[in-house]
Amino acid sequence: MEDSNGIVHLAFQYSESEYVSAAKFYYRRFRHIILRMAVSAFAFLVGMFGEAFYGDSGLWFALIFFGIILFALNTAIYFNNPRAHFRKHPFIRQRYEVEFGDDGVQFRTEETESKYKWSFYRRVIETSKHYYLLYEGNWFSLIPKRAFQTVAEEQKFRSLLKQHVDPRIDRDKIDGWTNKSEEYVPRSLEPPDWR
User: Fold this and answer.
1) Cα gap 82→24, rounded to integer Å
2) Is 179 helix (H, G, I), strand (E, B) or coil?
């Protein structure tokens, strides 16, 4: 709900599946979990190749061991951590009331209240279902799009993000979604100098 002061009020509660899905997306996109799994599989395969063609060696064994351990750790991080994090921390499961205004962002739950200046956030990623407000250490505040009651309310929120965090909100292309409501604006309206 948007009030006359230009403050956007949202209320939402994450479901476990929603939070887990969003966290897995974050791990894929920002923690490069797939690349880490590929590197571990490559180390394992190189170790196996070396063992098969060059005989026993501590180096080949180390590569095989490194590949297995790294793959197991990354698999556990990707598949277990989001769900375990959701279940371990009760504040994630609480109902959130959030206010976005020119002075910053205020989060409220049953047990906590926190206020952040816009400078706390360094980047915004928009997907078809969420806004990820990234802050220090590549952590994020997750804002579900289902929390917006009207298109105008979401547009006001987007304008606050553009004004205070990032003038060009990144749109995720992984799920094939793009926000077609905005028209393309070139970086420069002057023609290139062809001399």
Assistant:
1) 7
2) coil
